[in-house]
Amino acid sequence: MSQRFRASIWQVMRQDTPGPSSAGLDDEEPILPVYEAITQPNPASLSPVRPPSRPRELPSHAPSNSISNQSFLHMETLSNVLTYIYTLCAGDAPIQITIARVEAEADRQNYYTFSLTLKAGHVERAICEPVTLRLSIDPRGLDFSVFVFPPRSSLPVGCLHHLRVWLKSGGIDHRIFGDNDLWVGRDPDFRSIADASFAILRNATQDMLIYQAIVGRAHVSFIVRWRLVEVGIYALSFDYEAGGVGRNLFDGYHLKLDCEPQTITFMIYSIPAVSVPRGASHRLRFWLRTPTLPIHPLPQYPRR
What we know:
Layout: E1 36-38, E2 81-90, E3 93-103, E4 111-120, E5 123-134, E6 143-149, E7 160-169, E8 172-183, E9 185-186, E10 197-198, E11 200-204, E12 208-215, E13 218-230, E14 233-242, E15 245-257, E16 265-272, E17 282-289
């Protein structure tokens, strides 16, 4: 089973994109996507979003030199970080996309590394791989276009999105980020998924949750663990045990939280897949749920 996450909110990853919504079980959804669920009303959907040239009611960006806005995966202290923050809606879910620009090594003049994070509710995570660009333009006032669009139907309905980030310069647009597996939604209808078997929370401590489920005809325990990395940043791991045998499914997935981990809940379920012997293969889904966090419009113009 793949251990790689790719984004999302009810937020995570794998390179395969989900298949069409149907009662079939052999779809192409990511094996372990992580998603953050939005549970309260949010603004109307806006997509695409481009920073306006004058004040408007559309979401906009504003670069900031605040170190706290940089990608939380950059664990070292960086002294020259510029961030561009965009607010938009993915379906019914309000999200915040942050583009962080960091100067590359001193011996590589005019090279800059860009990273991308997604925030929904109280949870922020890195998405896409960092990109290094050589710029011969002013790097302090870049013009990005950030938007999402639904590629096709999905299960749960309305939770799958494609994300694109383009950089405009000199009348030319450059696509620098793209994610085809952005799963995020407000109160997804999980019960609409045919033949899904849902795990039930049986025990919880400060840094561990134990869920029990029936997968096929086997009794399985799923263990979710939090580990504090530094203030506000946690590493998430996920294991299973059945019949005295266990295995790690993923480990060390970093999340930045604006809340205590105990306020985060999970939705874990399996879907039977075609296999030989019959009933021996299952697709596992792991969703993260967080209360919604109001995202207020940012000032329209860059701050230095």
